[in-house]
């Protein structure tokens, strides 16, 4: 019974939050770019002890905004 409870909690955690590497992979940006976004407050991080997590919804929203942001701030760059 307890194992099922923990599996459900882990499933919820995986649905709501991403690790640093998962967020970087999902956005398709470099580590340097990602950490710059976090430092500038464009992406919010959550700390619990030594764990750092990011809201999955926020990362998904940023991913959907990327094409228009790239066009706005880097119109000279293709793709």
Would you give an account of this structure?
The structure is a single chain. This protein is 63% helix and 14% strand. The chain is an alpha+beta fold and 79 residues long. The protein has a single domain (2-73), classed as Multidrug-efflux Transporter Regulator, Chain: A, Domain 2 (Orthogonal Bundle), CATH 1.10.1660. A three-stranded antiparallel sheet has the order 1-3-2. It is elongated.
Features:
Multidrug-efflux Transporter Regulator, Chain: A, Domain 2; alpha+beta; 4 helices; 3-stranded antiparallel sheet
- Which CATH C-level class is it? Mainly Alpha
Terminal-residue CA separation: 50 Å
Q: What kind of assembly state do the chains in view correspond to? A: single chain
Strand portion, in percent? 5-15%
Beta-strand segment tally: 3
Task: Determine Rg (CA atoms, Å).
Answer: 15 Å
Q: What's the shape?
A: elongated
Average pLDDT taken over every residue: 90
Q: Helix fraction?
A: 55-70%
When the domains are counted, the total is 1
The CATH architecture assignment turns out to be: Orthogonal Bundle
- Which sequence of SSEs, written as H and E, runs from N to C? HEHHEEH
Major beta sheet summary: 3 strands, antiparallel
Order of strands in the sheet with the most strands?
Answer: 1-3-2
CATH topology: Multidrug-efflux Transporter Regulator, Chain: A, Domain 2
Counting helices, strands and paired strands, the structural category is: alpha+beta
Which ranges are low-confidence, i.e. pLDDT below 50, for 5 or more consecutive residues? none
Q: What is the number of helices?
A: 4
Domain Helix-turn-helix: 17-64
Protein name: Helix-turn-helix domain-containing protein
Pfam family, one: HTH_17
């Amino acid at each position: 019974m307890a194992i099922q409870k923990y599996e459900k909690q882990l499933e919820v955690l995986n649905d709501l939050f991403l690790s640093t590497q998962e967020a970087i992979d999902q956005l398709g940006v470099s580590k340097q770019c990602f950490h710059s976004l976090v430092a500038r407050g464009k992406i919010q991080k959550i700390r619990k002890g030594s764990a750092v997590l990011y809201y999955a919804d926020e990362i998904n929203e940023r991913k959907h905004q990327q094409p228009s942001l790239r066009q706005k701030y880097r119109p000279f760059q293709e793709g």
